[in-house]
């Protein structure tokens, strides 16, 4: 593995922060760890390596490759493996709707307990309309989420400030959909 936890971790962390500050904007992931040949899954691994550490837990949904990547990330970061319904962070490789629906949303007193879901996404993109913090007026990004995932995201975030945050990885780019944005589909 060519990953440098200090240098690469810091640069990926900063890329994620840029994405979170500009919801719907694709931001380049500057380096990946080489944990998987699939660009989306390796990009998701980079994000998890940069953002997870001991004391956090990681759930996984999807392919055997995603399970292998999650196991490697847990070993390298000290994060604990857990079920999706109890996870602070979730790695998804494949359809995301059911996972979004099961993910913790936090409570009115602890909204920060809502999960962050990192989706290794490819395929058809959906154009959506975003508004809210970090968005000047509205924006219309194309994000590779199917209708079921998009509906699950909207439902999960219907009781603000509770909800989930999404980091959608497409190849070597990340798109943030934080719980604070309003989403409409076209």
Automatic annotation (TrEMBL):
Instruction: Spell out the coiled coil positions from the record.
Output: none
Q: Which Pfam families match?
A: PhnH (PF05845)
| Segments traversing the membrane | none
InterPro entries tied to this protein: PhnH-like_sp, Phosphonate_metab_PhnH
The biological process GO terms on file are: organic phosphonate metabolic process
| Source superkingdom | Bacteria
Q: What is this protein called?
A: Alpha-D-ribose 1-methylphosphonate 5-triphosphate synthase subunit PhnH
